[in-house]
UniProtKB/TrEMBL annotation:
Keyword Phosphoprotein: yes
Lineage of source species: Bacteria, Pseudomonadati, Bacteroidota, Chitinophagia, Chitinophagales
Alphabetical list of SMART domains matching this protein: HATPase_c, HisKA, REC
Protein name: histidine kinase
Record keywords: Coiled coil, Kinase, Membrane, Phosphoprotein, Transferase, Transmembrane, Transmembrane helix, Two-component regulatory system
The organism of origin for this protein: Dinghuibacter silviterrae
Amino acid sequence: MNFLPANKTLLGFSLSIVLILFVGITSYLTILRYDDNAGWVNHTHEVISNINELDRRITETEATGRAYLLSGDDRFLVLFNDAAVHIEFLQDRFREMTMDNFYQTRRIDSLRPLLAERIGFIRKRIQIRQAGTLADVLAQTDMHYGLALQAAVDVLITEMREDEELLLTERNKKMDASKLGALLTDVGGTLVGLAVALALLWYIMRTFAERERVRASLQESNESLEKVSEENQRRNWLLTGASDLNTRLRGEMSLAALAQEAISELCTRVGAQLGALYVMNEETKILQLAGSFAYPLPPGPAPEFALREGLVGQAAFENRPLSVDGLLKDRFRVRTGLGDLAPRFIEAWPVDHEGITAVVELGLEEPLAGSREEYFRLISKDIAVAIQMAVSRTRLNELNDRLQRQAEELQLQQEELQATNEELTRQSEQLQASEEELRVQQEELMQANLQLEEKAQQLKENVEALEIARREIMNKAEEVERNSRYKTEFLANMSHELRTPLNSILILAKLLSENKDTNLTDKQVEYAGVIHKSGQDLLTLINDVLDLSKIEAGKATVSLAPVPVTQLRTDMVSVFREVAEAGQIQFTTDIDPLCPKEIYTDKDRLEQILRNLLSNAFKFTHEGGTVRLHIAAVNPQTVAFRVTDSGIGIPEGQQEVIFEAFRQADGSTNRKYGGTGLGLSISRQLAAMLGGSLDVESVAGKGSTFSLLLPVVFTPKLEDSGTIPDPPAVGEEPLLAGKVLLIVEDDPVFSNILRDFARDKGYETVLASRGDTALQYAKAYLPTAILLDIQLPVVDGWTVLKRLKADAATRSIPVHVISGFDDRARGIEMGAISFIHKPLGKDDLDGVFSAISASGPSTVKKVLIVEDDAVQWEYLDRILREKERDITCVHAADGGQALQRVGEDIFDCIIVDLTLPDMSGFTLLEHLENSGLPSKTKIIVHTGKDLDKEDALRLRRFTNTIVLKGGRSHERLLDEVALFLHKVEEKNGDALSRPHWNIPSGDDVLKGKKALLVDDDMRNVFALSATLQEHGLEVVVAGDGREGLDRLADQPGIQIVLMDIMMPEMDGYEAMRHIRSDKALMGLPIIALTAKAMKDDREKCIAAGASDYITKPVDIDQLLSLMRVWLYNSL
């Protein structure tokens, strides 16, 4: 189709118009999309800034609230209220800004009640603080509840911030896509326009001019779009920089760390070559260098400026930025790996927020202007607030430390003042009593003078009558004592004479009842069982008679220890559950909630009483009846154990008779229930031994209630001798053939039984029926082990044991005592491996030979070290192995590993640290006690923890050896291990093979030693002197430090010093320093006696020259242990 030129021009013009309209509309729409995306990006930045401000205000409420609680300063209360108001405003603003975001709206709605509750919680604590003290706040509010609220708030804040940051990333991508679309549209439209212009160039110049106009318009639009993009990038740069700085400044940092983070971020963001941040000291008004960036620090103290001093001080004074240019290049240089650079400008910018807080000094290549200046002004307030918060935290910490020190000093002063007041009160009361007594005596003296002559004659007659009565009483007392001694000796001898044949009866009856050769009829086996049961009943009767005799003669002893009440109930249930089920009797136990968890008494004696009471209850209760054990607290000092049954009851007239020996409520010959009548008599006397009482309430035909009342903590009037633990149970190991066993027994029947058992175990036996023969055989045959009876002809067993241990040739032979005499402590003390009480059963004999099998000398001693510090463990392992090559050390880094090691192997000694990562040392010790740990295993506590009296008492349950870390504690620990292993080797007869240990045991180290006791309290001096003298020490006494120095000078031969710390004229610290200044006394052991009033007493004592220390009140066992170690070291 042919077109006219005009039509072609019109067509070209039309096409140009269409193209221009298309490009213009497209560009306009692209600009609109870009502006929309940019607006959303700016909106997201504002939301993130709002979140950061909200987070900062929340942190400010926490900090100011805590500050007010600690200091009570109303300034912090004002800051807290201001932050709380801002939080409410920021929440409303955030909700308005995120109305289009359902998830953010839901989060802010969830956050609002949490913040209100958290701020309300803080306000409640502030109100309590306003009305009381910090202790009231801690007592009346739950810290964990506040922490839970804060954690919930932090989670929501983090989710809100992360959501907005994700939106920001998506919107930036959309904005970039819009920008790219606009650019493509412009380029495409321009190219098409140029093509049309070239086509129409030949037709009309006006069309070209129009096209040029359109192109200029498009170019102007592009430039406008680029300006908008640059502005958005600039604002994005500012907001990102502020957000990064706030992120780096978050958290509780020190002022130096915060300043370093701030200056590093600032210099990196603005491109500064050098930077320094000076913080204003509010008290001195001095600007001190707190952080720097690539700043060459001069030697010496950190630079500081006063107001109007230097560029920094002048900028702070004028509160405006100052700049210096044209510097010499050699004056300020920045060192790099490639060379040195010199900044052209130095600028000082003040950081102002409610007053000058700091000054930032920057080294720049060009002045800080434009976006960088705007950035600094944007973040200067954030830096100022962060600095103020850091300074406030530092002041709060200092205030807290000062309050703690003052509290400790106040407590010490109060204790001293209380002691002084008590002493003054006592003296005042004594003076008043003396005056009253003097007045009364004056009145009575006048009357006495009148009556004196009348009473003189009467007194003479009374004295003569009293003398006659005293002689009669002494004669009767001697007769009673003689009768008691005769009775005790008779019962002891009779017990031995009964036990010796009974021993054979029980063993042979047991063997017959087992019928291993199957040559007995069932009836004969039954007869043998009856004989064995009757023998056991006879043994029980003998034991009851002996118990009664011991109690009546005052020979019975108690072994005191903490006893858990729940354990008592468990033991009784396990013993009598089957009895109750067999008799179809309902057996119930219960513990009152107010009952103490444990009592301090003799567990064995207490369980003996309860077993007797429950046995009687079940015996006298018919089928279908009930028996109840009820444990309750009568008062804070007394616990009641009540055994109630629904049995036959006791007539009122017989309720006291049942407590008499060999008496029962029904004493007739045709009585229904058997028994000796000793149980309740022994139980009542045992109850009296334990400081309690045993009574009964009963109605005939309705049942009885026996009430055992015991003190929660039993303190005996006289010191009870400790009981000796039973020999440890050791696994049976077969012995090699050819081992020789010497059996020393005067009873031929029992001797033959032992011989047969020994041969069955693979031993060759040598029999001796006399003590002198036993000594000859021991030297001639040097047996593997010896079974020794005590009551022997010619030479008794005690003498045999003594001579065996005194002779170097027989000292190492293990001796196992088998006797009818109950004197285990004496046998163990004299060197016996074990002490077995007649009569014996077959199981007892198996245990004897297992002990013989395990009593051979051990070549390697195993020590378990429970220590989480690897350095400590390696050091202890090294020094122990250097001390003795036959020691193997096993390491456990925590309590779990320790229990695993104990379950896998047997250890001679366990060293325990109380501070472990997975459990406390106390918990580990309880687990070890319940794990069946052999009694021979020594436990040593080695800890750096300060122990109070309660902790020390708890540790005494498990060990008497406690070594506190510090000073020369490793040497003491080494000696404690050496002392123990030495005792074990002597007990196992291995002392001769290890002469290099050569450590004296017990009081041998103390006897004959001379000790100086320096203490101004004469009561302490008397008590300690008496105790030390009982252990063989010669004690020299001094009343203060100066007198102690005089005693050292005029009393030669002093080998150890016990030094009190708080004394008049010269205290213990100064006295120890004087002693250590004398070269001749540098090695003299000094044990400091401290009251442990302050935490650093131990370090002060060691620094003053103490070798070791012990806290008051003094634990005598611990003091004697320390003295043994230090005196042994000084030998």
